[in-house]
Write a structure and sequence with these properties.
The chain is α/β, with parallel strands linked by helices and 422 residues long. It is built from eleven helices and 20 strands. The structure holds flavin-adenine dinucleotide.
Amino acid sequence: MSTNVVIIGAGLMGLTTAYWLNAAGASVHVVDSAPGPGLGVSFANGGMLTPSQANPWNAPGIANYALRSIGAEDSPFLIRWAAFPRLLRWGIDFLMNSRQSSYRRNARRNFALGSYSLARHREILAATEIECGQARSGTLQVFRDLPALENAFAIADFLSRDGLVYQRLDRAGLLAREPALALGRSEHVGGLFFPEDDSGDAYRFCVGMADYLVRAGVIFSYRTSVNSLEMRGRRIRAARSDNGPIAADVFVIAAASRSSTLLHQLGIKSAIYPVKGYSATIRGFGDVTDLRIPLVDMHRKVAITPLGDALRIAGTAEFTGMDESIDAARVAMLLRDAAEIVPGLEGLAPDRITSWAGLRPVTPTGFPLLGRRGRNLFLNAGHGPLGWTFAAGSGRIISDLVMHGRHELAGHELASLAISAP
Ligand SMILES: Cc1cc2nc3c(=O)[nH]c(=O)nc-3n(C[C@H](O)[C@H](O)[C@H](O)COP(=O)(O)OP(=O)(O)OC[C@H]3O[C@@H](n4cnc5c(N)ncnc54)[C@H](O)[C@@H]3O)c2cc1C
């Protein structure tokens, strides 16, 4: 008899977990409160698949930066007063992880998961022929000051021992790699090129994956909110939903920031904080820029990614609780920052721009909550700013743990670090 698995969440994590479990012979039922797949934080993200961005946000020195960000409306990193007091406990852990040793350790395990995941992602695309505008053009990080560039070289150098491939670029090298940057107003002093990164549209992937899984026999229940998990002894018996209880042998929580609510009810403290980010999408951008390589401007932390016929601009990190509303001033700031790199964005008719906000589920380590948590409960949540990058590998790890009690990364040098739960 096949193992029955209920997955809570039809975002990138839930769908990739469903894919691997289905391939391994499990009977899978995916439940989501939304009316379709990929409508949560996976909907309009930056589109980058970047093991290269393995270093977590909380680099040494973040404490000063974080303090300056409280109430700083013009900063890409904004902490609103409303975020307190819930932020306090999480924030202390976040700062504790900014020590050089933790930072480097977390960067290494992110890189291990990111590289593993990108390989699994390419396998999925080859096997399913899902069309999501996947491009293998590498990515760029561009810098406006030399000390920041030197810092980035140092961390890339450190990760190159684990296999990160990168090229150092001075300004001339940068413009030769991406000539469209010459038109920008921002004086980039140089950058790094990561030839092994990819990009693609996460929402198109989710829709393609859900279609594929329906054909493969996976059951989907949309518009179905899971309100709690019903225990019998030490096992979970059913997911209690709006539409009644859903029983299974195994349960996977892949509900991003909302995973915390379900976990708290079970007495499990989880350290996921929702950090709001924004994106703006411009369709048919040929008249706006010739940019071809997805890039991140590290000074203003803005990502610009060509995704098929669309240009996606993404960024900002706002600590404001579970608030998903779109603040027009934040979108305007994002577009202003991007326009310094892509001047064609200035004066663009508003009806060409689609704005969006989503809550990145961020842990204090920058590494997701990935693994077994209880007899028949598994977690696949908390992938923060790297969920598109981490999705295919995280799903595979959970599937391997459910079906075989072990996972492939176990042979990795970072095995003891690679899997964590709250
Ligand atoms: C602005 C921005 C840019 C980003 N750029 C990138 C990038 O370039 N590269 C990258 O790798 N990552 C990026 N990310 C991060 C990435 O998008 C996320 O980490 C990833 O989408 C998380 O996927 P998920 O499946 O965990 O969450 P989701 O997609 O949110 O899926 C969770 C699902 O669970 C459902 N759910 C929640 N609670 C319940 C419940 N109780 N019952 C039923 N259903 C429930 C929700 O409806 C949702 O559909 C970005 C994020 C943002 C905000």
